[in-house]
Specification:
Elements lengths: L1 E9 L3 H30 L8 H11 L1 H26 L27 E4 L5 E2 L3 E3 L5 E6 L7 E2 L2 E6 L4 E9 L14 E7 L3 E7 L6 E4 L1 H23 L7 H31 L2 E6 L2 H10 L4 H9 L2 H15 L3 E4 L25 E4 L4 E4 H10 L6 H4 L10 E4 L12
Parallel strand pairs: 9-12, 11-16, 12-13
Antiparallel strand pairs: 1-5, 1-8, 2-7, 3-4, 4-5, 6-8, 7-8, 9-10, 10-11, 14-15
Helix pairs in contact: 1-2, 1-3, 2-3, 4-5, 5-8
The structure holds zinc ion.
The site of zinc ion has 7 residues, from loops.
Amino acid sequence: MKRTNIFKLKPAIKEQEQRLFELADNCARMFNEINYKRRQSFFSRNFDWNTDESYHKYKKVIGSATAQQVTRKNNEAWKSFFALLRLKKQGKLPRQIRKVSPPGYWKDRKTGKRVLMILIRCNCYKLSEKYLKLPFGLKVRWKGKNRWEGKKQGRLEIRYDDLSSRWYAYMPVEVERKPLHQPTGDKKKKAYVDLGIINIITSWIEGEKRPGIYSGSTVLSDWWYWNEKIGEYQSNMEKNGKRKTSKRLRKLFRKRKKRFRHLINTIIARFVKNCWEKGVSEIVIGDVKNIRENSRKKKKGRKANAMINNFWSFNYIYERLRTTVENYGIKMRKKEEKYTSKTCSLCGKVHRNGRKHRGLYVCKTHGVTMNADVNGVANIANPIFPKPYWRDRDNWLVTQPSVVKALIFTTVKPPTL
Ligand SMILES: [Zn+2]
């Protein structure tokens, strides 16, 4: 499995940092030059892969190995663009991709500045305890965690972060498929998962009486808090007739995103750890597409909708879950059979208006009201979801899932939902 180590770089002296700036700027120039020619040839319907001219021009400035990597990076972008075009023609484009456009430039859309990045071929750098040894006679101090150790290191990317004025190195490594932890206990135990926005994770672990819900209310209110901060700042800028963007504004956007991700990471880590401790070896997840579309159509309230529309939250949540699960050595697979969140997990019918407001689902056959997300996860776990409990009037275990909230974020007080 592929993982990426991220390090902060600490150029020791002005000259060293100056050298990084020069190299990064020339990498960006080269990338943009190649890309410009390719876009021109693409739009004139005579696509040209040839990059000899740029290669010979830039190899003197950034070295032939790096010039080759820049060319490759651009090749990769075009190849995936063509692959998407092919899928589009066949009508097989993944639903989350709405528009397929040719590769863009290394340029920040908001500031118009070149994106500063240096590419180093996998065999041209070496990480020692304190230093990152690069070609061009550069030896830069690094800080951070060398979290993933692998036998094979990939192409190193050194990027300058405009907002923090810092350099970062991204080092991909191929980690052996051996899981970090082996699931304990019964090797065949499964957990069933339904992903959502209000309830990030609704799950049921085989053999448990109650399903668990990992609530997203903290995520929503925190996201909303920063959303309003951004709104206030934007309207202030407008009033004062200032530019539409600023460093401070971009920092606010980033903060909102970082906090969102941090909260999601915590929730997912807790859930997966819990699964692991209970000896789960496989997680079965509902069809994410289906759920996403349901969340879009349903009235989830102003805040939830704003978050869904403004964010690729779903892809992030799904990907994060996938990698965390992989880290623990647990398998993950999608439930293949078709079902929708409108299906009743008790009788298998689709009740008209079964999904009511406030996250409830009503089964008209049995006259039962249940948590809509629990109904969702029961559909995924069926036929083994513990049905007897449903009919036990005094023991509505399944309608009362245990709820876990991410409460450890007390540094900023978000308003309550
Ligand atoms: Zn029913």
